[in-house]
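Appendix C: a fully annotated inverse folding record. The material below is reproduced so that readers can follow the format used throughout the book. The structure is listed first as C-alpha cells, followed by the designed sequence.
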C-alpha cells in the first residue's frame, strides 16, 4: 500500500519554519507561539543537537557485570569468548547471564549449536525467552554452520555460537569481519573461535554449588570466580566472584566477608573495675658459671 501518511509528513517537513519553508500562499510559515520567520535559539539548538551515540555503541548488561566490562556493556561489532578452565563448569550459564541484560532491553538473541541449553535455566538467569531463537544443530556440513551464523549475525543483535562447532578458521575470520560490519555481538561459548583471539574474554576459574552437605540439603546457589581479560580497552584484567545464580535466583556479585570486630574486656560490676591480669612468672635465670 502507498504510504499517504509519509507524504503528508514530508510536506509538513518542507513547510517547517526551521527549514525556511513557506506556506502555500507564499508567505513565511508561522512559527510556534504566533511568531513569524523562525524559532527561538534554544528550541533550534535542541532540534539540531547531534545525537549522542556513545550509549548506542554498547549493549546493556546486568548490574553484576557492569564493573567487569569496559564501558559497563558489550561493545557492538566485537566478538566475546566465554569459557572455563579445564574441569570447571559454568561457561554456558555465564554466557547466558552475560547477554541477559541486552535481551531484557529489547535485543533479540540467537543461539547456534547449543543443543543442551536449558530454557528454564536461561529464563532464571534473566534471558527473555520471547526474544530468543534456538538453532540446535545447523547440520553436519561446515559450510552450513558458517551460512547459518552469518545469516543470524545480519538479523540479531547478539548471537551465541558453540566454539567447538563445525567452523573453520577461514569461516571464523569472515564471521568476525561480518560482525564488525553489522554492529552485532558474537559470543563464542566454550572458548575461542578457530584461529581467532577475541578482544574480550571471560573465563570461569572456579565454580561451587552452595547448600549441599554429606547426604543432606538442597542447592541454594552457585558461586563462581570470573576472570576478564583481553586487549585494547580490556587489557586491564579484572576479577570478581558472582552468584550464578544466587540464593534468591538472581545473578549478583558475592558480597565481601566483613572483618571481625575485636572484642573489648567485659567491665565488672558497677563501681568496680576488672581485676588486672596476673603477671607472667619470671623466666628461669640462665647459669653463669662454666660446667665442671
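Designed amino acids, in order:
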Amino acid at each position: 500500500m502507498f504510504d499517504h501518511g509519509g507524504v503528508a509528513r514530508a510536506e509538513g517537513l518542507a513547510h517547517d519554519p526551521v527549514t525556511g519553508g513557506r506556506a502555500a500562499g507564499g508567505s513565511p510559515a508561522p512559527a510556534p507561539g504566533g511568531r513569524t520567520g523562525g524559532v527561538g535559539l534554544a528550541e533550534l539548538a535542541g532540534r539540531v543537537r547531534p545525537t549522542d551515540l556513545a550509549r548506542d555503541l554498547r549493549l546493556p548488561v546486568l548490574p553484576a557485570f557492569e564493573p567487569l566490562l569496559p564501558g559497563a556493556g558489550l561493545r557492538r561489532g566485537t566478538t566475546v569468548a566465554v569459557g572455563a578452565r579445564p574441569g570447571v563448569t559454568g561457561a554456558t550459564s555465564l554466557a547466558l547471564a552475560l547477554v541477559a541484560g541486552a535481551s531484557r532491553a529489547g535485543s533479540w538473541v540467537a543461539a547456534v549449536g547449543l543443543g543442551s541449553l536449558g530454557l528454564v535455566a536461561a529464563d532464571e538467569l534473566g534471558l527473555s525467552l520471547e526474544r530468543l531463537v534456538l538453532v540446535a544443530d545447523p547440520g553436519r556440513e561446515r559450510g552450513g554452520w558458517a551460512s547459518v551464523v552469518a545469516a543470524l549475525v545480519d538479523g540479531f543483535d547478539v548471537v551465541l555460537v558453540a566454539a567447538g562447532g563445525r567452523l573453520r578458521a577461514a569461516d571464523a575470520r569472515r564471521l568476525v569481519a561480518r560482525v564488525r560490519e553489522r554492529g552485532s555481538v558474537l559470543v563464542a561459548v566454550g572458548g575461542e573461535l578457530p584461529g581467532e583471539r577475541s578482544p574480550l574474554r571471560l573465563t570461569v576459574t572456579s565454580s561451587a554449588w552452595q547448600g549441599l552437605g554429606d547426604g543432606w540439603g538442597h542447592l541454594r546457589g552457585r558461586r563462581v570466580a570470573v576472570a576478564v581479560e583481553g586487549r585494547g580497552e580490556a587489557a586491564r584484567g579484572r576479577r570478581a566472584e558472582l552468584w550464578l545464580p544466587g540464593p534468591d535466583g538472581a545473578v549478583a556479585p558475592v558480597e565481601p566477608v566483613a572483618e571481625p570486630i575485636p572484642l573489648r574486656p567485659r567491665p565488672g560490676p558497677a563501681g568496680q573495675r576488672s581485676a588486672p591480669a596476673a603477671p607472667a612468672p619470671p623466666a628461669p635465670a640462665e647459669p653463669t658459671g662454666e660446667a665442671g
